[in-house]
Design goal:
This is FAD-binding oxidoreductase. By secondary structure, the chain is an alpha+beta fold. It has helices at residues 2-12, 21-24, 48-61, 115-124, 141-146, 154-157, 160-163, 193-196, 230-244, 256-265, 288-299, 313-324, 326-333, 348-362, 397-410, 426-432, 435-448; strands at 17-18, 41-43, 64-68, 86-90, 97-101, 106-110, 127-128, 164-170, 176-179, 205-212, 214-215, 219-227, 248-255, 276-284, 306-309, 340-342, 367-373, 378-385. Strands 15-12-14-13-17-18-16 form a seven-stranded antiparallel beta sheet, sandwiched between helices. It starts with a helix and ends in a 12-residue tail after the last helix.
Length: 460
């Protein structure tokens, strides 16, 4: 193994091969602090060509690779196991903005570019890259692609699948697939980029992508409104879509427990209190005043428990800060059994009502913190209390998951909407995923990665 490490150092540079525990520590623990690994080493290549050389070397020595971007995974997808035999391949040094094509509304970036850097590159060119996540200052484009990230603007712009025109990827044998063309139409066979989007690094390593850009909105209208129940929220969603069309960019919800968590950790930012809060945002070109007036006019004839419409960019950012601080506030609040679930939006009220009733029957007094992207049916449905003292929370995890996922799949939903599967949900995926679909995915995995060296121990 010393020969392998020496050859690896020659490829990436000695300063970019980390082997001691102090240097590798930031790469071995997942964001939620649930998974702790022991890597053989951490390699930080600086180009696609170097990634290719590393992969070829690993294949020759039968060394497994765990790709890692910003290490913001909530399901252990980028964490090595405890064997000390897996190489963490950190991609942050692949951080070039390769090309901005404003005429084609396209942006080509490398996988280690953070989401915020991609947004800023687009904005500097007078364009919008619309993916928006709370972790955007840390998460990287490669990771966003590998989990098919969604975020708060999916309602209008779609997930990373819809936002990607082309990919560059290093295959498990080290060859480089270059399909970075910025085309919106191409019927020359299979759309191969879709194999790698959402695959969590198990079919190859994404090293660059060509992403869709949009006109930069000059007008926003943003409101935080309280309503009595989730049924009312979904009714509002449908009527807002009818009134404003694709100008409805975001529609987020927060239940009462979620508001309590925010109030505990951000009392000055959280003046609202309602059974459910809705964060609504419209966006468009032109003068913001007519858009804001139209939203105020629509809201003026609705029944609501509480509400405010932002009057300037500072107020708008305060409303979004509340939404973006939920995950970190919940982490400070203590452990929780997290679910990144999605059902058809029409089924959200039934899910919320029936699942809570079954959980409360199994665990009297259970506390559920629910929030998320109701506009696309994606709810972050987290259980943070099952028994007095909360000491046995994770002892109840399997029972809680079974209740939640049974309801989700009964309603035609999924257990992984935008965070991926990773280590956390792989056994549950085997239980709920269509067996033929799993068989086909494993067939593709075996064809591309016959040695099983690409991010092993995850959902495939």
């Amino acid at each position: 193994m010393s020969d392998f490490l020496a050859r690896l150092a020659a490829i990436v540079g000695p300063q970019h091969l980390l082997t001691n525990d102090i240097d590798t520590a930031p790469y071995t623990l997942d964001w939620r602090r649930r998974y702790q690994g022991v890597p053989l080493a951490v390699a930080r290549p600086g180009s696609t060509a170097k990634v290719s050389e590393v992969v070829k070397l690993c294949r020759a020595h039968k060394v497994a690779i765990v790709p890692q971007g910003g290490n913001t995974s909530t399901c252990g997808a980028a964490t090595p196991d405890g064997s000390g035999r897996q190489l963490v391949l950190a991609l942050r040094r692949l951080n070039a903005i390769r090309h901005v094509d404003t005429d084609n509304n396209a942006l080509t970036v490398e996988a280690g570019v953070t989401l915020l850097e991609a947004q800023q590159a687009a904005e500097a060119a007078g364009r919008l890259f619309p993916l928006s996540l709370a972790s955007q200052g840390t998460c990287q484009i490669g990771g966003n692609l590998s989990t098919n990230a969604g975020g708060v603007a999916v309602l209008r712009y779609g997930t990373m699948r819809e936002l990607t025109l082309g990919l560059e990827a290093v295959l498990p044998d080290g060859r480089v697939l270059n399909q970075l063309q910025g085309l919106r139409k191409d019927t020359t066979g299979l759309d191969l980029k879709q194999l790698f989007i959402g695959a969590e690094g198990q079919l190859g390593l994404i090293t660059a992508a060509t992403l869709k850009l949009y006109p930069l909105p000059s007008a926003h209208a943003t409101a935080m409104v309280g309503v009595d129940d989730i049924e009312t929220a979904i009714d509002w969603l449908n009527r807002l879509r009818h009134r404003f069309g694709d100008r409805l960019t975001a529609f987020e919800v927060m239940d009462a427990s979620c508001q309590q968590v925010l109030r505990r950790h951000h009392p000055s930012l959280m003046p609202f209190s309602a059974p459910w809060l809705i964060l609504i945002e419209l966006s468009d070109g032109g003068d913001p005043a007519p858009l804001n007036d139209a939203l105020v006019e629509w809201l003026s004839v609705q029944t609501m428990a509480d509400g405010v419409v932002s009057q300037n960019e500072t107020e708008r950012r305060k409303l979004w800060t509340l939404r973006e601080e939920i995950s970190e506030s919940q982490r400070k609040d203590g452990p929780s059994i997290k679910h990144d679930i999605a059902v058809p939006t029409s089924a959200l009220p039934r899910l919320v009502r029936d699942c809570a009733a079954d959980l409360d029957q199994a665990f009297p007094g259970v506390r559920i913190v629910a929030f998320g992207h109701a506009g696309d049916g994606n709810l972050h449905y987290n259980v943070s209390y099952t028994r007095p003292g909360n000491a046995d929370l994770f002892d109840d995890e399997d029972a809680v998951n079974a209740i939640v996922y049974d309801h989700v799949y009964r309603l035609g939903g999924t257990l992984a909407a935008e965070h991926g599967v990773g280590q956390l949900k792989k056994d549950w995926l085997a239980r709920y995923k269509d067996p033929l679909a799993l068989e086909l995915m494993r067939t593709i995995k075996a064809a591309l990665d016959p040695d099983g060296l690409m991010n092993p121990g995850k959902w495939l």
